[in-house]
Design a protein that fits this description.
This protein has eleven helices and 14 strands. It has 365 residues and is α+β, with helices and mostly antiparallel strands. A hairpin with a 4-residue loop joins strand 10 and strand 11. Helix 1 runs antiparallel to helix 2.
């Protein structure tokens, strides 16, 4: 369900929740043939969440998962459509945009006197507390004895940008640092910082965006060893007062193309393979492919369901216009099975799916 975070409209949350609980009660009685007393017993753990303090601390969306002896709820930065599902497996499809292609990135805010690291996605951004890392030129040069000897002043080509700087020469121009903070000391600082950030960026694949004043970009590029540094810097004069919500939209506009390109490439691949037997929008072929581990890339439509059932042993598929006892959303089932079998899932708006179909797949074989 979508949730309201603040203001007088917060009172909509418990009202919407109670209406969805009524839907759950009806579905449990109809599909599982449970008596009203049994339904209330099953739902009791969820009903106990309905307290004022619970509704005062929400994000944009709420997802609740309930089974015998199991309850999990998640406040999430995504405004879901209202949906209640009773099935033999959890309905995860609305969450897939958060789990696949969520647009994870890092933002490193730099100045000579302060450093801050943020982790973000297409939906939100929060600060990471840096430990045991000098966060100023002065602290770095005191912290790192070898820096005083200048060992990092050897010019080497560092990875991490599409335009790496092969030599560590001087940098002059508008906005250059004052003479009392020599560029060489700033570069030393960035070498020390780069080493310290490995603790947080090791084995990461997410893009790294810089924020600060323009003259710091080429200096940091020289010291950087993280291979996914974006070749620009977001202009921020005072990083000390920077709030995640103030720069999130700007940062995401820079990062988004790196993620949309992967989805565009998957769509192009589908069209290249259409008609060859290695791509399909056919329900039988696609659902079976998901269960049998054939799917490399899967597109499923958000905001819609296709009820039915699939027997993987008999390879039998049954589609229904309305949910019947024993049914599940086959779009959800295909997405979950594809993920379990190591495939990639794009849960997108219906118009973004190849051939305007509810489901489309690119097969491994």
């Amino acid at each position: 369900m979508p949730t309201v975070q603040a203001g007088a409209e917060v009172q909509q949350n418990p009202i919407r929740f109670k209406n969805l609980i009524k839907q759950a009660e009806a579905l449990l009685e109809e599909q599982k043939q449970l008596r009203p007393t049994e339904v209330l017993e099953r739902l009791q753990p969820v009903l106990e969440l309905d307290r004022d303090e619970f509704w005062q601390h929400q994000s944009q969306g709420l997802a609740i998962f309930l089974a015998d002896g199991f309850l999990r709820y998640y406040r999430l930065p995504l405004a879901f459509d209202e949906l209640v599902v009773v099935s033999d497996r959890f309905h995860l499809k609305p969450l897939l945009p958060l789990l696949t292609g969520d647009g994870k990135f890092f933002l490193l805010a730099l100045s000579q006197k302060q450093v801050r690291l943020f982790e973000g996605s297409r939906y939100s951004m929060q600060e990471i507390e840096l430990e045991e890392i000098p966060t100023s030129v002065e602290a770095a040069l005191l912290y790192d004895e070898t820096a005083k000897e200048g060992q990092f002043r050897i010019s080497t080509s560092k990875g991490g940008t599409s335009n790496p700087f092969p030599q560590a020469g001087s940098f002059h121009g508008q906005g250059s640092p004052d003479q009392d903070e020599p560029q060489s000391d700033i570069l030393q600082f960035f070498h020390v910082l780069d080493r310290g950030l490995q603790k947080y960026l090791h084995n990461e694949q997410a893009p790294l965006v810089l924020a600060g004043v323009e003259y710091l970009l080429p200096l940091y590029q020289q010291a950087n060893t993280y291979p996914h540094l974006i070749d620009l810097i977001l202009p921020v004069e005072n990083i000390g007062v920077l709030k995640p919500e103030d720069i999130h939209e700007q940062a995401w506009s820079v990062v988004e193309p790196y993620y949309t390109e992967a989805q565009k490439a998957a769509v192009e691949r589908y069209h290249e393979l259409a008609g060859t037997g290695k791509a399909s929008t056919d329900w039988q072929e696609t659902i079976a492919g998901a269960y049998y581990g054939r799917i490399d890339q899967l597109f499923v439509a958000l905001g819609m369901q296709q009820w039915g059932s699939f027997d993987p042993e008999a390879n039998e598929l049954h589609l229904h216009s309305e949910a019947e006892p024993g049914d599940e959303d086959l779009l959800n089932a295909a997405a979950v099975q594809t993920l379990l079998n190591g495939g990639t899932v794009y849960a997108v708006e219906p118009e973004a799916i190849p051939d305007q179909a509810p489901i489309a797949a690119v097969f491994r074989y």
